[in-house]
Each structure stands twice: as C-alpha cells, then as structure tokens.
Amino acid sequence: MATFISHSPEETRALGEAWGRAAAPGLVIALSGDLGAGKTQLARGLAAGLGITARVHSPTFTLVNEYPGGRLPLCHLDLYRLDSVEQILGAGLEEYFHPAGVAVIEWAERWFDQPGAPRSPHRRVWLTTLTEDGRRIDYEDLGA
Fold it and tell me: Full-prediction pTM beyond 0.90?
C-alpha cells in the first residue's frame, strides 16, 4: 500500500491528475472517506489528467455523471444514497465497475466491502482528513 500526504486541495487534484495521465482503459478507482475528505477533488484531478475540460462535480443526487471528450471517457459514481448491493444492482450501476474508459466511485465501501458483491480489479483509495487542508491518501491496486 502506498501513502500520499496532501497539504491542499490542489495537491489532491495533482495526484488525481497524475493517475489520469497514466490511466489505461478499464481502470476503476474506488474512493472511501468521510464527507469533505477530498474524494471529488481527486476525481477532478483525474478528469484533468484524462484531458476532460468539463466541470466535474459530485453526482450525489444523480448517482452517475459521464464525461466524454478526454483521452478516455470518465464515469463518476456516488454510492452515498445506496445502502446495499441489491440497491446498486437495481440501479443498474454494475456495468460501471467494468468501464470502457475510467470509473471513479465515491463511497465505494458500499459495494467493494459488501459480501456477495462481484469483484473486479480496481485501485482502492482511502482518504483521511488530517487538518483543514491536509489529507492522508492511502491506495493500492487490488485484483489486477
């Protein structure tokens, strides 16, 4: 497992941007962390690294935002409002766990930590708030 200490939202976005520049088709990035921990900042950086110029915002109320137009398309999911694997499957979101481009999933523990959820290779990311602007970002690639 690797750890990155971010001292600002800009540093969090820069990490995401580096991941976006290196991303291959099929990459799934599974984010976990409290509200305000920097999940959407990381997703914004990822989009920038993919060459996506659209404004990225959290899909909390829509569940999924899709961003074409970059080197690879980006699907940004938010599972906060879903409580079970059954609800995620019922919403038709499973297809996003095997993307043609890149998928970034906020509140990923609602899928990846649940018994009975199908598994796929992904980068698992945990964001922890250290200070007002400081974040600890732990990550590892699983199942590849």
Answer: yes
